[in-house]
């Protein structure tokens, strides 16, 4: 994993020289130090034993052998599978037991580096790391001032900027919200441009059509200075149409990315009881079956192309059939499927800060924490929707984004685990301080005070009286002030002017081509 | 563990006969079924390996040998320790390595049953169970209508009633809030009476003085029908005065309870960086040292008396020195100390739904979940403060209580883990439903729908439009309606009239004795 070492070295070098930045860096508190990703010092929590995992793997194999998957409007994909040993009956493709696993284990990387425009922000995906990635795909935005409304490109840019500024967010994400003021066929151009212009963190490409994926690759090539060769600079979201269907749109996008050595997150999106049986072990077996086919496809397109095992599973309200989040069942599924991904030997994506709440209230926080904590303890590598989610993903919230980012910082600290160094054991003060004598003033406490405890950016720990005197604001109202201040202080990262011009030219040219029906 | 089997059998019998109750029971949804405690099917999460735990145990032994503890105003306690092999130098008592552990492992039970007035509600404490217990010790209460104010006996009774009615709360608790309208020397009488009169769940006795503990034992004797003999009917909270001090008040109360075979929770209450060094491993070693002394004391008083290893550790705001909650460090401590308790072989108490927030907002929920989830995943047996906590314990919130109880229900469901029964594996629908065909109408889904997913009592999973049409209430406002409805529907459990009279007589007599200075 020399790539990781490179990323760390780059991190030490810092991203820009100059006295002003250096002085600013020194002023930053410990909590604000930017780390490119979390390195987990904890073993993942195992919810089921090896024998149980083997049962689920066998079930997935049985599903692929007996039922198979339907591959819609993509004869070229069917051809690839048949050549590799599958049997096709029209669109239905069945796989001999073990076939997909074997293809994957021959070439899919267990760990890869996604390069960022700023090399200090390269992320290692896989192994003992966790990468936090913003909300994805919401048509609406929510904030306390304007309530809920359709998202615009301006909102998109704002979320990209807030993600860029958060020391706890490692990635710029993809469709952080849908800029619905831009026509669908043009949208991807503005989104990719925003990620390249307003952030220097890694990002995700468009997947809504093969040619939009190709545009994403081309813009990344320009943004990264013309050389992608063997660098992975995008990780993009390829969803199955559960149950057991892969459609042409997603397979086309996956093909473009895999061909270009860009990463795909192969994700069954499952509302349990609708797109799968209602039980956790059933969801796990079906998810594994769908992912085996999707990742095998990327390896048939280009052996060694990076691919992530994705899982998105929610439970359901028995009253209305609406999806529910932060409930126990998706956590059980997450822990189970994470272990399946480890056994398959590829990175894993799941979790986030998910909620069905419409606002950043107690429901939103309970549910988000109940998804985020399993994300960390389950050893998820790529945590999409790590901040901002509201309303089952229909909206991204500005205040929710700020509150969630704070939790990400806490998770990163938790991942450090127990420090058993001599300083951590603290035997010096324990043996020298007599009973009844407090430790506030000891040399050990003074030495550890700054870094001993995670410093929340949004919590109010003051007395009731002080909190009340300061307006008695709830967490959401405090977060409202924070995001406004952050956007007011935003400074764009460096982007070479020539590159910026080239990107703008590309966007303008493609927009006119697409408007002319030439896509 | 035949006691558990008895408790389960009693649970099946139901607590009252009669057609009306039976019909009501049938109407209850699956979510409302009352289970006396959680049986965890998951292994606890281990944050540190055996070698690491051994280091901490050695450190605790070294502290006890070299520094020892101070035992204040309790020469009889010092005498007991010296007789058992300790060395006293005035109030300072030092212990040979391994002495306390040996005393504890000879007689302290790994598992005990705390009996409830209603045998169906007996709780097993220790082993693979978790018992949820209400908030403890708050002088203030908070609700949305009246804000924050001093607690009264009426509030105390209300919290006891709400705990009684929650299917997710297993215990009536102790000082669920401080009834400050009652003079301190009389308060314990009204509190114990409330637990016996308004609930039939197990409860905690008073610990603020030896004679108040004795009153608690006497009232329990009356409430349980005069026979405590070998039954443990109270579990009470005995706090160390960290660092490394045990005072007479707590030791006196512990002596009364242990003598009567009632259970003590021996708990260091540590604000890290003040009552201990600021590091997690330091807190763990000191906690272990203090607990070893406390539990050994109970075993010297009465070998075999039930005792719980308690741990309460919070981090600190670096700005103000105020305690902070739901941060990563206390979770790391919880997982570490839980493992130490398992190795010692006694039940463990820690965690809860802790927060520094003044109101039931997003901060309260994030922080509470970040304490409650570790409580479950760390295998905590006795979760004090499981519902209601606000403001670092200074207040108990009515809405917070309702919201937290809902989370307890979710935790209980999570503890069931992955169901790998044939029904759980769901291979029948997985092999029979063709790709692309949804599972909503399958026999398997219909058969599992009612119990497949935890049904939250407080979450709103409706569409934005429906939620908005219904008033756009946040979680706290919905909880406000719930607790009012619950209190309006409250029906007291059966209590024999003669017993009630005897209890009232005892309270009246003791009050006049105490008022006359005769306590």
TrEMBL record, chains A, B:
Pfam families to which the protein is assigned, alphabetical: MTTB
This protein is called: Methyltransferase
- EC number(s) for this protein? 2.1.1.-
Locate the region Disordered: 1-27
Q: Which UniProt keywords apply?
A: Methyltransferase, Transferase
Mark out the compositionally biased spans (Basic and acidic residues). Answer: 18-27
Q: What class of enzyme is it?
A: transferase
Per its record, what are the GO molecular function terms? methyltransferase activity
The processes (GO biological process) annotated in the record are: methanogenesis; methylation
- State the family it belongs to: Belongs to the trimethylamine methyltransferase family.
What InterPro entries does UniProt report for this protein, alphabetically?
A: MttB-like_sf, MTTB_MeTrfase
């Amino acid at each position: 994993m020399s790539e990781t070492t490179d990323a760390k070295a780059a991190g030490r070098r810092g991203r820009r020289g100059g006295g002003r930045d250096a002085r600013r860096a020194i002023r930053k508190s410990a909590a604000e130090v930017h780390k490119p990703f979390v390195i987990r010092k904890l073993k993942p929590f195992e919810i089921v034993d090896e024998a149980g995992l083997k049962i689920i793997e066998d079930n997935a194999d049985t599903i692929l052998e007996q039922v198979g998957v339907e591959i819609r409007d993509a004869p070229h994909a069917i051809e690839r599978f048949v050549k590799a040993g599958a049997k096709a009956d029209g669109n239905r493709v069945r796989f001999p037991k073990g076939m997909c696993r074997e293809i994957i284990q021959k070439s899919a990387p267990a760990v890869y580096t996604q390069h960022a425009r700023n090399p200090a922000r390269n992320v290692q995906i896989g192994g003992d790391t966790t990468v936090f990635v913003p909300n994805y795909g919401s048509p609406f935005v929510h904030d306390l001032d304007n309530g809920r409304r359709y998202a615009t490109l301006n909102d998109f840019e704002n979320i990209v900027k807030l993600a860029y500024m958060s020391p706890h967010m490692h990635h710029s994400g993809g469709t952080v919200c849908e800029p619905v003021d831009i026509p669908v066929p043009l949208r991807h151009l503005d989104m990719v441009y925003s990620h390249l212009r307003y952030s220097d963190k890694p990002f995700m490409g468009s997947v809504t059509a093969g040619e939009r994926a190709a545009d994403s690759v081309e813009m990344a090539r320009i943004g990264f200075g013309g050389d992608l060769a063997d660098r992975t600079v995008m990780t993009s979201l390829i969803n199955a149409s559960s149950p057991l269907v892969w459609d042409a749109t997603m397979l086309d996008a996956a093909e473009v990315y895999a061909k270009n050595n860009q990463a795909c997150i192969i994700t069954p999106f499952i509302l349990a009881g609708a797109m799968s049986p209602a039980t956790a072990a059933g969801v796990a077996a079906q998810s594994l079956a769908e992912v085996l086919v999707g990742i095998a496809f990327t390896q048939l397109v280009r052996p060694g192309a990076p691919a992530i095992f994705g899982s998105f599973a929610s439970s359901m309200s028995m009253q209305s059939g609406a999806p529910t989040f932060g409930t126990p069942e998706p956590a059980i599924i997450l822990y189970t499927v994470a272990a399946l991904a480890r056994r398959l030997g590829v990175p894993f994506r799941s979790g986030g800060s998910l909620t069905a709440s419409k606002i950043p209230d107690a429901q939103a926080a309970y549910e988000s924490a109940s998804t985020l904590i399993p994300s960390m303890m389950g050893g998820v590598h790529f945590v999409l929707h790590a901040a901002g989610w509201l309303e089952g993903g229909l909206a991204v919230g500005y205040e929710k984004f700020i509150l969630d980012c704070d939790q990400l910082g806490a998770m990163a600290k938790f991942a450090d685990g127990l420090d058993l160094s001599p300083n951590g054991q603290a035997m010096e003060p324990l043996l020298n301080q007599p009973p009844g004598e407090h430790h506030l003033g000891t040399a050990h406490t003074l030495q550890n005070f700054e870094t001993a405890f995670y410093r929340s950016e949004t919590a109010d720990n003051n007395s009731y009286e002080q909190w009340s005197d300061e307006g008695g604001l709830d967490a959401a109202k405090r977060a409202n002030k924070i995001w406004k201040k952050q956007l007011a202080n935003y400074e764009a990262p460096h982007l070479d002017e020539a590159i910026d011009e080239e990107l703008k030219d590309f966007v303008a040219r493609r927009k006119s081509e697409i408007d002319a029906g030439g896509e």
